[in-house]
Amino acid sequence: MNCCAPEEKLVPLNSVPRVALIGQPNTGKSMLYNRITGASAYVGNWPGITVSLSNARIKLAARDVEFVDLPGIYDLEGFSDDERVVADFLKTYPVDLVIVVVNASQIDRQILMPLQVRQLGLPAVVMLNMADEARKAGIEIDPAALAARLGVPVHLISAKYGEGFPEAMATVATVLDQRHGTPPVMADYDTLRGTLMTEDTLAEALRGSVIYPETPPKSLTERLDRWLLHPILGLPLFFAVMLCVFYLVWSIGLPSQDWVGEITDWIQARILEPVLAFGPAWLQNFAINGIWLGVATVASFVPLIMLFFFCMAVVEDSGYLSRAAYLMDTWMRRVGLDGRSFVMQMMGFGCNVPALMGTRVMRSRPLRLLSMLIIPFSLCSARLAVFVFIISAVFPASQGPLVLFSFYVVSFAAAFLAAAVFSRSRQFKNSEPFVLELPPYRVPTLRQVWLRGYGELREFLRRATSFIILGSVGVWFLTNFPTDAEGLNTWGGQLGQALQPIMAPIGIDPHLTLALIFGFIAKEVVIGSLSTIYAMSAGMVAHQISLTVSPVAAYSFCLFCLLYTPCLTTVATVKAESRSWGFMLFSLGVSLVYAWGVAFIFYQSALLLGFK
Questions:
Q1: pTM, 2 dp
Q2: How far apart are CA 434 and CA 339, in angstroms?
Q3: H or E element at residue 252
Q4: Nearest Cα to 134, choosing from 209, 231, 30, 203?
Q5: What angle is formed at CA 49 by the lines to CA 45 and CA 53, rounded to 5 degrees?
Q6: 45 forms bridges with which residues in the sheet?
Q7: Distance, CA of 129 to CA of 21 (rounded, Å)
Q8: Which of 124, 76, 40 lies closest to 455, judged by CA?
Q9: pLDDT digit string, tens, across residues 424-473
């Protein structure tokens, strides 16, 4: 079978064979990519491409092969940002093979992409994923007959359970062996644009190879949706699910901090302090109070953050997140958004950066800008660590989960209010229709949940580590100079006091003010900086805060931390995605003013009501 392009542009050989994965959203493409690459994938920058793409090099049939996961798109001729990213990649970087991932249970709606890849002149292998779901739906597919019509190898697989995966990857290896020494191929978009794809073209491609049942069987998805998409019960059930997630994170993740704390204390007492005892006093102070305490404090939150990522992976992979978007669409439309904005808001719970990048699926620029304006109000994992630290120090343990959940609610309320106000502006008026595909409910496998959670945690630590070290060192300098000064007489203390006319009305003292300043770099720095500012371990800092910060002031601090600028990386992403310095500065100003205003109203109202 000839799976190569009839006419290939002469380009230099790739040093390592390059395989690109292409598919529509909800086809399980990323699940297949994770199964292929395991935990070896990383995010790389591609010159000429305006975004970062996940790629990995693995051994396949005893040689290195590079796999690139391209964004999920509906049409290779589309005009959304993600569709342009895929087109730019295929026109800039020659590929040795394309794996086209298709949802086997929706093959009639997704056969367009394999046909388009063929017209691009790219060598391809088609993988019909979710073969198990297609069988349950009574759909019969003949891969050999379909391969004969498409002119490329076709495999039925289940990336979730591994069904058909070894055979499919053996075919990939065979095709790459056949192409050994053959130049890679650049996409021929001129031929694609000159080809008319009609309904008859799609139907002809499937004729004789796909048979649908006359009466589709009743599915578990339909039975569950009667309750989970109920117009009255749907939203309360969703918020109950999220409350359970936060309760689980609190009740299991919080005790794990003590275990990690014991480990870091042992390392400090048994290794660092004896080694540093031979050095000068300033070096001991710098290494322990300037670097180690900050790193150790953040390390204590790793189990908690990992548990949060695992829980969110289960919610998303089960198919429930799409239902939440559907449920929220009616409410989102009232404030100028739609269900996609809600999905991005939920993605922001892990990290605001990928959520901002996810707005590329929106073709309407006003909708995209408005979504980017409110996504930074999402309670990201770095803020979660800060809130758990402050809440556990100040509030009774029995109130912790509810207080934490209240910030989740405030996050949504603040986003909706901001959207309602700014959607009245012509700049943010949206007229794009909202179309959402609801995947069937699926039981996530432990392997996929582990890979998703571990991948998110690894990216969090990679991004946070440099910020934490730089931030902790910066805080140490500000709190240790002049050398004869202590406490509020240091440079850091003077900076915190200088900002008191602004921060005192919202209940934030100079120490917490300095932590917020460094939190502008990254929220991960806030907890580490507190240990450096107070020159204490995490446990001692928590005790000190419990003595000096009231519950009202602590809540006000968390409100400000929730709504003001998330981090420099988020600011840079807003600039890159909006392609506008003006919008970036506008977003920055809105978040600072909004955070102060909400904290001021809460704190002053609490004082008027008699809370201390």
A1: 0.71
A2: 7
A3: none
A4: 209
A5: 45
A6: 52
A7: 13
A8: 40
A9: 888 887 777 766 777 888 888 888 788 777 877 777 777 667 766 777 78
